[in-house]
Automatic annotation (TrEMBL):
The keyword Disulfide bond applies. Keywords: Disulfide bond, Mitochondrion. Residues 28-59 are annotated as: Disordered. It comes from Malassezia nana. This is Uncharacterized protein. It is found in: Mitochondrion. One of its GO terms (cellular component) is mitochondrion.
Amino acid sequence: MSTTAPTRSNRQRCWDNRDTYYACLTKHNIQNPPGTDMTGIKGPLGSGSFAEPPRSEAERARLMEQERANDPCRRERDAYEGSCAQSWVRYFV
């Protein structure tokens, strides 16, 4: 997405693709999107950085790519990430 402010139709496309992606995650009973680095995220007991064993940056990146490659919602995620500003993608996830 460009650096210019999104138009109303751009925002709507982003939201529609986000909703489609989240519906796919729900359909597959996925709570944490595959390939999403949850390091440093605070949340309920059993989630977040304290639930993950320490890994190097390279190892985390490799695991994230591997998870994304096997993501059953990869097509929907690509559409979502391609139509939304990266700051929105990070916020919504």
